[in-house]
Amino acid sequence: MAAAWGLSLAAAALRGLTSWPRGRLPAAFPRSQVLRKASSSIPQADEGQIHLTDNCVQRLLEITEGSEFLRLQVEGGGCSGFQYKFSLDTVINPDDRVFEQGGARVVVDSDSLAFVKGAQVDFSQELIRSSFQVLNNPQAQQGCS
Q1: Kind of pairing between the strands at 120-125 and 51-52
Q2: For the whole model, what pTM was predicted?
């Protein structure tokens, strides 16, 4: 079972929320296609990058307005000791890394980046849920079953 993460994007619930439901760290996922590499405000080696799928880019362009972007954070908690948190934000802090592709932006603070570098951010839409997900995270050694 592919672990679904992050936030529920029920249409009316998206705006006005600052705290989103949290998921759990992924187990090993089958390799999804990385359609294009994200660019960053600070060029570094590929392993320091976050990759955005076309589904992620498309959904972000639909839900963000003006200077909004998707913030990805890693917090303590969950069955593996860490969990992902997604939120819409407008403030970029000095320790943030910005990953931009096709006009969509995902921002990760430097502490969280250590736990998700090389991972892929996707948007998944299923019958009962729609959510952003972190997939293929080379930093995750185990996940919840």
Answers
A1: parallel
A2: 0.66
Indicate the burial class of 54 (C-beta count within 10 angstroms; 0-12, 13-18, 19 or more): middle
Band of pLDDT at residue 60, cut at 50, 70 and 90: very high
Q: What is the DSSP string of 65-105?
A: -TT-EEEEEEEE-STTSEEEEEEEE----TTEEEEEETTEE
What CA–CA distance (Å, rounded) separates 101 from 57? 7
Strand-pairing partners, residue 120, are 51, 135
CA gap 91, 80 in Å, rounded: 29
Q: What is the pLDDT of residues 34-50, one digit of tens each?
A: 223 333 333 344 568 99
